[in-house]
Write a structure and sequence with these properties.
2 domains, eight-stranded mixed beta sheet, 15 strands, globular
Length: 257
């Protein structure tokens, strides 16, 4: 169960990450390429280190799973899942459509999520049983029951491994339009009623855990490509819709041969 002090802590974690990130934005910084060919910057590492320092001091029994510094106590009942900069390529290019992702899992279920854009200072917070907020005000997804009317977004065609791209294309050809780029920011825009559908594959737990409470607390629905709820064991193929009715139509085409 999520309590007010969990949400207050999540806000402070996002504050700390933003303070670490902003000095590097559109500035000179060191950058490396990781083993999976994805980039990592000083800002990624500084932000995650800032978050972890607070958690170790205030929640020493909780687990932590982070993109940059790995896992500790991941078998704990409560586990914080961190992606300090989701959308590092956008950050490197000076595009303010990346975000810090902070999630709290209980028993492997995403129960609290934060999507924080530290440059535009937009912060979405979703918690199980509560309405999602954007900068403290409630937000709702919009009604869209048909793919023919849907604005569909995804990060990029190169993020669909194997035959997943062909499955995505079956949906995309039926959508009203397709927008490329955006990473976690797409899910935030969906929660605020500006997009209708996001479909992606190849996500890690730290990419998706924070998104679920944000989307579903705004009235949307997130599932894997088989229609199952997302958990710590999900395979990284996700669909998010502002209107739950849209999920079934999209899943039909994702699974067809």
């Amino acid at each position: 169960m999520i309590h007010d002090d969990d949400i207050a802590l999540a806000r402070r974690l996002a504050d700390a990450a933003g303070q670490a990130i902003r000095p590097y934005y559109r500035a000179a910084f060191a950058m490396e390429t990781k083993a999976d060919a994805s980039p990592v910057t000083q800002a990624d590492r500084a932000a995650e280190a800032a978050i972890r320092a607070i958690l170790e001091a205030e929640r020493p029994h909780d687990g932590i799973i982070g993109e940059e510094y790995g896992s500790v106590r991941e078998g704990a009942e409560r586990v914080w899942v961190l992606d300090p900069i989701d959308g590092t390529r956008s950050f490197i290019a000076g595009r303010p459509i990346f975000g810090t992702l902070i999630a709290l899992l209980e028993g492997g279920q995403p129960m609290l999520g934060v999507i924080d854009q530290p440059i535009t200072r937009e912060r979405w917070i979703g918690a199980h049983g509560r309405v999602t907020t954007l900068n403290e005000g409630p937000v709702r997804t919009r009604a869209c029951r048909s793919l023919a009317d849907a604005h569909l977004a995804t990060t990029g065609p190169g993020y669909f491994p194997g035959d997943a791209k062909a499955a995505f294309d079956r949906v995309a050809t039926l959508a009203r339009d397709v927008l490329w780029g955006g990473d976690c920011y797409n899910y935030a825009l969906l929660a605020a009623g500006h997009l209708d559908l996001v479909i992606e594959a190849g996500l890690q737990l730290y990419d998706l855990a924070a998104l679920v409470p944000v989307v579903e607390g705004a009235g949307g629905l997130m599932r894997d490509w088989k229609g199952n709820a997302l958990t710590a064991d999900s395979d990284g193929k996700v669909i998010a819709a502002g209107d739950a009715a849209l999920v079934n139509e999209a899943l039909l085409h994702l699974s067809s041969s």
